[in-house]
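Progress against Task 2.4 (sequence-to-structure conversion) is shown through the following example record, which the project officer requested during the mid-term review.
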Amino acid sequence: MNFPWWMFFAAAGLWHLYYLQRYWWPVMWSAQGKHGRMGTAKPVSLIVAARNEAENLRRNIPVWMAQDHPDFEVIVVNDSSWDETGLVLKEFAEVYPRLKIVSVEEQDKYPTGKKFALTLGIKAASHSYLIFTDADCRPASEQWLSMIQGTYKDSTELVLGHVQLEKTKGILGLFQQFDALFTNLQCYGHALAGQAFMGRGGNLSYLRNLFFYHKGFSAHLKHISGDDGLFVNQAATKNNVKVCLQQDAWTYTEAPASWGAWFQQKKRHVSSAAYLKFGHKLRTAMYGISLWMMVLWPALAWMWPLEYSAPWACLWVYRWGTLGWAAVRFKQAGLLPLLPILDLKNLFLRTVWAMSMTQPSKARW
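Structure tokens generated for the chain above:
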């Protein structure tokens, strides 16, 4: 009797259907919910690590300072910059009393990095509620800090916010936008399911005590990435994470300007997967395998009756319909005409990045 190999494909299809329903669909409903200003506002510390970010700081410090929150401070860590970052910070400190500057002088014998800079910023913070962003990120509204802090409940220790890529042009822009959409679905979907394993450093919040309880970034200090995602993976529990996806609580950032810069960024991010908890590695690996089996089915479909292919066609329609809805929800409707092509290209690129992962030995920016 011939072994029914189609059963492996059937199992992969069922797993993929479960994955979409379990982790992707809740993101769209959450994006429509209400957040922010839920209860008494608490003082917050906004922390930014900056290396050679003079132009971004000139542009964004006034925007951060314009936040409509009753009690907040902005801590900028000048991490060994050799441009005009230090001068820019001194000029703004004379204008904004809320601005606190922490300076780091790098030594050849003891190289630092972003995680070290953030640690110094956290130690300098006056408040328990910490909110993080990057020097090139600007908030969508003056309610950003209040909405992120207002998402906290009694058991909340971590809040994941949304980082939106600025509109980009060309094929590179389309690939970047789709990759960001996929990353967002993975990030927020797992968090809403009580299995958070990543976050975005451009819009992230957690309690100061949580950072020290987990000994900061010590578990992955030598890895170049992970000041956001790996800390979330380390500190998140089933009940201590909330997600704030309201548009007024977004931050906006620019994508890398070249293919080379983008590939290097993605390879650096993907390399963090080696540090994830086993359960998260297993789920993401099973997702990738199930998707590749969906891709391979057309090449092998001739081996079975034609009607066996109908469920696969329906599954692809369901997947692309879900991605299309997500694209509309996250203001990326421009992806819709090329969605199937972008989806397959993204799978190929992520597989290439995963296979070419590197493990940097030094913590750098």
